[in-house]
Amino acid sequence: MIKSMMLGSLLLLVSQAPAQLTAVKNTYFEAEMVFREAEMNLMPGLYGYWKIEASGNEYVEGHLESPGQSDTALLNITIEKKAIETYAVNLNMDYRGKKYLSGIVFSGDSCAYMDYGDTVAVKQSVKAHALIYFYSPYNLVKTIQKNIRTLHLIDANEENFKILGFNDEYGNKFYTRYDRTKKEFTALWMPAYDPVLGDYFETLAYEDYRCDNGFCFPVRITHQKATGIYRTIAVTNIQFDRNDKEKPARKEMVEIEMDTISNHLFLIKLLNFNNKMMVSKHRNYLSVYDAPINIAVCRQVISFLQEQFPDHPVKY
Questions:
Q1: Is the dihedral of CA 22, 24, 29, 33 positive or negative?
Q2: Is residue 25 helix, strand or coil?
Q3: Which fold has domain 44-242?
Q4: Residue 20 host element (H or E)
Q5: Contact between 274 and 281 (Cβ < 8 Å)
Q6: How much is the CA Rg of the chain, to the nearest whole Å?
Q7: Chain-centre distance of CA 55, in angstroms?
Q8: DSSP 213
Q9: Dist. CA 228–CA 61, nearest whole Å
Q10: DSSP string spanning 5-18?
Q11: What residues contact residue 232 under an 8 Å CB cut-off, 6+ apart?
């Protein structure tokens, strides 16, 4: 009896496996399509240098009249990309008539951090300051590029807003919301733990993007921790330099042809791969069948289909 039950369960799992694998594949396929849209608008490799100047508030806790109470400190902030892998955030705090300086410089897989009141910067893991690194959405794009294999779709029900999940190289898990209408990242969540309040999401909210000759940056950033709003940032000035040379055009991996079978059915031929796939056109999206495993080829197919059907994104 037990053996037959186990056999039945195994057969059920086997029967469900293809559908589950297809769902995972479609989830990644759509997640990458959404990310490529964002990547076209925020291209970190296009700018050799940029500097953001901002003012804001930091909400200070501890040594106050009652537990959980916070006090407001004024901030002047600079967020600056100095080199390919060097990124700095400097904070000048004015709190109760006294001036304090804090700074963090990210370089490669580590950072140099100086807390308020300290005089020497301490080398630390980037993991401890992950959300400060993501004050720049360009760093968000760059991190997803490096860890594209971890990208997946969390919420596919909303047409204009998509929630993507990904990991960074330091073991952190993140979720980000992307507005497909405005082509903007609007929020970032990182699971965190507070010794008093327990599990929570540390969050960033990006609002009111300002674009200047293609360089786009949120004018308002809100950083929230377990007890509430931790820091607010209001951008006052943006400086940037584009790289002298654009990235060379990527060589296409495969030659693509399309045959029309009917008004809503098309045959895609990958000529030098000796491979074919079917595409069906629906009311407001496309479905792709038997897509190749090669991710780079899939990206090229998506670009080809977007050129052929600009009003019909690939959904499945």
A1: positive
A2: helix
A3: outer membrane lipoprotein receptor (LolB), chain A (2.50.20)
A4: helix 2-41
A5: no
A6: 24
A7: 25
A8: T
A9: 11
A10: HHHHHHHHHHHHHH
A11: 56, 57, 220, 221, 222, 223
pLDDT in tens, 256-292: 888 887 778 888 887 766 677 888 888 878 888 877 6
User: What is the per-residue pLDDT across 150-209, written as a single tens digit (0 to 9) for each?
Assistant: 999 987 667 788 999 999 988 889 999 999 889 899 999 999 998 888 999 999 999 999
Structure tokens at 58: 């930091």
Residue 142 one-letter amino acid: K
CATH 2.50.20 domain range(s) in the chain: 44-242
What is the b/e burial string over 243-261, where b = at least 16 CB atoms within 10 angstroms of the residue's CB? eeeeeeeeeeebebeeeee
Do the Cβ atoms of 297 and 250 come closer than 8 Å? Answer: no
Residue 90 backbone zone (phi > 0: left; psi -120 to 50: alpha; other: beta): beta
Q: Which two tokens stand for residue 262?
A: 């009917």
| Bridge pairing between strands 122-125 and 152-155 | unpaired
SS3 category, 127: helix
Q: Identify any residues that bridge with 72 across adjacent strands, giving them in sequence order.
A: 59
